[in-house]
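Fig. S4 source data, part A: sequence.
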Amino acid sequence: MSAYGCMPVVAVMGFGGGATPSALVTLRGVVAVVVLGVVCALTKQIRRIAAVPALGLLALCGPLFGLQVVAFFSSVQHGGAQLAVVVAHIYPLLVIGLVWVRDREPISPWLAPVSFVILLGLVMVTASGGALPSSLPVGLALISAVGYALYLVISEHWVHRVGTLRATGLVTAGATTTVGIYALFSEEHFALSWSGWHAVLIQGLLLIPVGLGGGLYAVRRLGAVPIGMLGILEPVVAVCLAAILLSERLTAFQWVGVVLILAACAMVPYVTTRQRKQDPRSTR
């Protein structure tokens, strides 16, 4: 979660070095694929795997992950790291809804007021001095939230059959290929300054293998809903780093909104666990 939280701040540094969102995602993905391939070779995990889950991770989860990252970084580019981070982190609610549709498990009645508090905090955070920000960065962050929720729920089943390391490599390869094709057709340039390459290398060598790999490992061991809830740690890291490194500032009104969102999200694991304990049909 900490690795994910660092990404938007590093991305802003990359934008300052001339990188565009799709070029940054493509280049960091190439670096990460090489790193993950070397690690797979050294750990002797390059072997035959089941075709269906591998293809699903490569051709479905990979593009989903890549496109939502581009939407997120585009939101960061147009509206700043703090706004994008907070808006995108409504995705745990989307994960709960998608899992309910998939599994038809009962939803705790406490989730309704918790969701209301989260949305209230979201409105407070996206308001600055009583004025709403541009709809473009907010819309891009919402697209990212939907894409990431779909990615978590869909990948939950396949990662069990492929393994964390190989799943990370497949998702990264699929995301990099998809975004790279988009960048080429959009005629985006890949010539970066040193600060741009610095951002690419930090993400490709460290943040992607650790963040994406750790996320898939958590999905494999805990499931999509718990890892979605643990994602509330990401905005804490990102907002603090943006304030320290990028001199981005939130008003007192917006900070109250951040506190409301984090406090409400922190309650979600409690209310969902309580519901499972009370429900006699639950086997989890």
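Fig. S4 source data, part B ends here. Residues 276-284 have pLDDT under 50 and may be disordered.
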